[in-house]
Amino acid sequence: MLLLSGATAGVANAVNAPANAYCYIGWPNDGQVLAAGKPFRVWFGLRHMGVAPKGVRFENTGHHHLLINTELPPAGQPIPSDRNHLHYGAGETETMIELPPGKHTLQLLMGDENHVPHTPPVMSKRITVTVK
């Protein structure tokens, strides 16, 4: 059975997540220095939940969103889709990205079948990488 939290006007229903669920960035590591001018792999980890593609409603699942140089989006709202909010709606668990030289933050956030963060949010720690 899929449980939904209540919604207010203009706010999407947020799907409940297991209280012990969490995601993490397996690579790169916090503080990693990466070479400029070439893509690098970002590996997504998830515990106590499963991965399902966008549009698929299945209990205790969601799909990854990679947040780059941005804060978490507002609770109960669909995660934006832009250069700072990358969606992995096919159920991907890794990606290749290229960033310009400088310091960058990366964070994972799980979204439900409609790209809305779960309640409570299932997110990784924010890490910082430097591209040189």
TrEMBL record:
One Pfam family cited in the UniProt record for this chain: DUF4399
All copies of domain DUF4399, residue ranges: 42-132
The protein's name: DUF4399 domain-containing protein
Native source organism of the sequence: Massilia niabensis
